[in-house]
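so my prof wants the structure for this chain in the tokens format not the other one, which i didnt know existed until like an hour ago. anyway here's the sequence
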Amino acid sequence: MSESNDDLNDKPDSEVDDDSEDERDDDERDFDDEDDEDGEDGDDDDESAEAKSDDRGPRRRRPRGRRRPREEYTTDDERSLDALAFVTDLIDKMHMECEVQLTAPRDEEEAEIALEINGEDAGRVIGKKGQVLAAIQFLTNRVVNRPGLERRHILVDAEGYRRRRESSLASMARRLGKQAVTDGKIITFEPMNPRDRRVVHLALAKFEGVITKSDGEGDDRRVQIIPVRR
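here's what i got, hopefully its the right format
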């Protein structure tokens, strides 16, 4: 995280910008050029913004344990079943001791296909900084969203890793929103992928006293939290 002393007399327009649309390329970026080395990093919860200093002191890790699988979601949607079959077969060929299930989509209007991977090898499925999980999601996206078909949003999670990470990032965004209001300065995150930028935008969409804006191009695109005078 870095801070800017930019003059705030000119109030920029609020935006939840094209980051939602940029998620089409998110899977490619999520695991590109990362240093995986078969790292087992299931509880990494990387906050993507490098704004990790916290006055509350070091965090206590929750004991690692077997998560109770979410309630299974049943559907006769052919593409959802294709996704389930593909990921199940892939996990089997990776020789991972895990089970795959469909879960209820977060937003049915988006026609999302959501899958959850659970089991003793879930940490290896997640990989270092979530890179293995991102690769699985990328491949599943390619299988389900073939040319000529209506695009479906694909979400592949493992032991709740993505949900925990998004929750952590949203909490940090709100904390930094308060800091921006208090200090009266723009707070700029380190570069993020489109999915993480969208989490920040949504977390602060109704936050009193700030707006968010994405700045930069490509892999250098980052979110700014901008305090505004009401």
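also thought this was worth mentioning. The two ends are 25 Å apart (CA to CA).
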